[in-house]
Write a structure and sequence with these properties.
binds guanosine-5'-diphosphate, binds zinc ion, 5-stranded mixed β-barrel, 10 helices, disordered C terminus, 6-stranded mixed sheet, alpha/beta
Length: 374
């Protein structure tokens, strides 16, 4: 139960919290004991760095040396992750809120299919939300609802612009979870986030200028508090849904295939559901051709990995939604700038941030940015 801290003498020096955002080597941590308090600006203990332990947005961490005056601390321990996404890099996410528009831009079934498969391939739960209901007729709406039902989905239909209140089923589904918003541009994601998180001024990593460069890259992510409970990640990191999964994972991403396999097995264990005899999956269902096209992509991708020199085929361990460990090929080595110990300490000292002003990074001038290694 969060409580308001009033007696500074009795304040703890260590606490558990959630990493909401990061910039350079700094992490914005919301402490559990504060509930609605502004995040603490934290560094990672040298030991974690030595052990090669990255702190991710969404991580549950233990913070030591809490300085309540300046709202600073040091991250000493990272709790085990329930899940881990690579793009965007988020720990402990529960589900993906996939947003599409019924019109403007035109709802392209193949694009939607690809986003759905990409979302399913994370192993997280997927919620599908269709926005801009105000732009289509009842007939068009019914058409899409029936069509998506046959794909195995029950979309929540909304109009961010004209709904007096967002449907309670959507709010309930997001509540208490860490949600990742995904979808193509122009469908109303920002507008939706604006309504789900009314006080966006609470954002922690809202930055501009040189520091803000990261903001619209696929690697930048920050979490917002949902009213009540739960978190929402605002990230553009999902816009090009390249399929980097295995054939087995692809098959698991189609509810239609799972439904067919539940009815009966294919003749061959390793059936790819193309032209093999005795296939229980091949047949007259709408997305079958989408499956075949994506199968080609996934096989080409796997082939390209097999052809890589060994030293490039770095493996990356991911923890799936059910806690299972998956090994995924890591495509790009993360580049990070080395900043000397002295200049990091210097930077921390120079960074007299008042975190009651949450957009504080915007106040840094070029010299201060330089000190941060930018
Ligand atoms: P994003 O790129 O997915 O973040 O989409 P935005 O939130 O920026 O919205 C794109 C455009 O769609 C903006 O002009 C919004 O005003 C508009 N828009 C968002 N929601 C609705 C809606 O429910 N109905 C209509 N007609 N327009 C909407
Ligand atoms: Zn088959």
């Amino acid at each position: 139960m969060p409580y308001k801290v009033s007696n500074t003498a009795a304040l703890p020096t260590t606490a558990v919290g959630t990493v909401l955002a990061s910039q350079a080597n700094y992490y914005f941590v919301q402490l559990d004991i504060e509930g609605d308090g502004k995040p603490f600006l934290c560094l990672r203990r040298a030991l974690l760095k030595k052990l090669g332990q990255q702190v991710l947005v969404g991580d549950r961490v233990e913070v030591e040396e809490l300085d309540w005056q300046d709202r600073r601390g040091a991250i000493a321990t990272i709790h085990p992750r329930r899940t881990q996404l690579d793009r965007p890099p988020v720990a402990n996410a529960d589900q993906i809120l996939l947003v599409f528009a019924l019109a403007s831009p035109t709802l392209d079934p193949h694009q939607l299919s690809r986003f759905l498969v990409k979302a399913e391939s994370t192993g997280l739960d997927v919620i599908l939300c269709l926005n801009k209901r105000d732009l289509v007729s009842h007939d068009v709406l019914n058409h899409w609802q029936a069509r998506l039902q046959s794909w195995g989905y029950q979309p929540t239909v909304i109009s961010v612009q004209t709904d007096p209140a967002l449907p309670s089923e959507l709010l309930t589904a997001l509540s208490g979870k860490t949600n990742i918003v995904a979808g193509p541009s122009g469908v109303g994601k920002s507008s939706l986030i604006g309504r789900l998180v009314p006080d966006l001024t609470l954002r922690t990593g809202a930055v501009s200028g040189k520091l803000g460069r990261g903001r619209h890259t696929t690697r930048h992510v920050e979490l917002f508090d949902l009213p009540g409970s739960g978190l929402l990640a605002d990230t553009p990191g999902f816009n090009q849904p390249d399929l980097t999964c295995t054939v087995e994972q692809l098959v698991a991403c189609f509810p239609e295939i799972q439904a067919r396999l539940a009815q009966g097995n294919c003749q061959f264990n390793n059936c790819l559901h193309r032209d093999e005899p005795g296939c229980a999956v091949r047949g007259d269902w709408e997305r079958y051709d989408d499956y075949l096209a994506m199968l080609e992509d996934v096989m080409a991708y796997q082939q390209s990995l097999d052809n890589r020199p060994d030293e490039e085929a770095l493996e990356k361990v991911k923890v799936g939604a059910a806690g299972q460990v998956q090994h995924e090929p890591k495509l790009e080595a993360r580049k990070y700038r080395r900043i000397s110990r002295r200049s990091r300490h210097q930077a921390m000292d120079d960074l007299k941030l008042d975190l009651t002003d949450v957009e504080s990074f915007e106040d840094l001038d070029d010299d201060e940015l330089e000190d941060l290694g930018f």
